[in-house]
Write a structure and sequence with these properties.
10 helices, mainly alpha
Length: 264
Amino acid sequence: MTSRPLAAAVSALVEGPRAPLAELSDPAAVLAGLMDLHGSVSLARELSLLDRHAAPRPAAEGARAEVRALAADRLGELAAALDHVFAAPFHRRNKLPDAAAVLATLEQTGVLPARDRAGRALAYAAGQLWEPFGELVGRLLGRIRLETRALREELAPSLRALGPDAARLERLDAAISAATQKRRERALAELTPGLSRAFARAFRAAVGALPEGAGIELVAGWFRQDEWLARELQRMELVVQAVLAHEAGRLLSLVDGAAAGAPA
């Protein structure tokens, strides 16, 4: 249940150097920080019932490898799908604006040609431009959440079938996940607003650098690989990948722990 990938995601949203989070090396501290009172009571109740389940049947030969392969294949497919999105972010399937749409937003909000650098027009334009990017990030994070949860539920019977120790570990993981779910979801919910703020900062700087009479050519330059928009897309990709690494790491750690000692 490591939080290091999420720490990397948060670091991507912070300007300047970030102090190391030493407390992440203490699993007990991490777990305590992820639970509220309701989660603690729920976990205590589940732990009291942990050993009251019937022992599973012996695992079939090769079951450990099959479970590990299934988890790795599904997570690999998800990772490839996310990579595909960021390989061509401005493909029409992603519904991001092109240079003409960005210029139209700047003109409609009054940022151009007046170049209101600090007023409401600039803030409103930043929000308008961020909206499709935020929706894309939201869809991707939602996909990670849904697909990893579905995979976790699909793997549960196979994990329990690996033996009594594996079954106990699976139930323990389920209890901890339920007890920490609210806090984990709250932490994930803070990522997209953080990306929005970073996007707005970069947008304000880019608008401030535009000369008088800027038109489509200069706005189109924002779409080059060395410009601010590409850097913000890289920041979004880093956050999405970090969330996937977090969820995938939790699943694969469970699978590997449950498979230890099971028939190969």
